[in-house]
Amino acid sequence: MSKPLPLAAVPPTRPACAGLWDTPMVQVNGDVTVCCLDEHLLNKVGNVNVTPLREIWQGATLEAWRNAHVEGRFADSGPYCTSCNWRSAGTMSPERIAAWRAGQA
Ligand code: SF4
């Protein structure tokens, strides 16, 4: 019988996480991260008191992290995404990825 993986084990392969597209989380002080798991703001991408949320969410950092997820380069994504066991924020379907890529400049 094989030994079970620890809860936080990172799967060897995984799909792009929809959190980077769907779940901006704004803290009470205005800090923005990409998912509800990120209580320590490892994936902080800005602060709405400094930068509008639209600008943060459509900015270069998140676009780079999204591309990294789509291409399976999770080490090039947000620090928390790199070690996340990816079990909460949903999957980007191939159709959604294709539509997103078609909309990229
Ligand atoms: S991969 Fe993990 S840390 Fe990154 S957005 Fe998805 S659920 Fe959050």
Highlighted features:
105 residues; globular; binds iron/sulfur cluster
Describe the secondary-structure layout:
Elements: H1 19-22, E1 25-26, E2 31-33, E3 46-47, H2 53-57, H3 60-70, H4 79-83, H5 94-103
Antiparallel strand pairs: 1-2, 2-3
The chain binds iron/sulfur cluster.
Alpha-carbon distance between the termini?
50 Å
What is the oligomeric state here? single chain
| Ligand list | iron/sulfur cluster
Helix content: 25-40%
Tell me the major beta sheet. Answer: 3 strands, antiparallel
- Describe the global form: globular
Number of strands: 3
- What percent of residues are in strands? 5-15%
**SSE string, helices as H and strands as E:** HEEEHHHH
Given the structure, what is the number of helices? Answer: 5
Indicate the mean pLDDT: 87
Arrangement of strands in the largest sheet? 1-2-3
List low-pLDDT spans: none
Class by SSE composition: mainly alpha
Radius of gyration: 14 Å
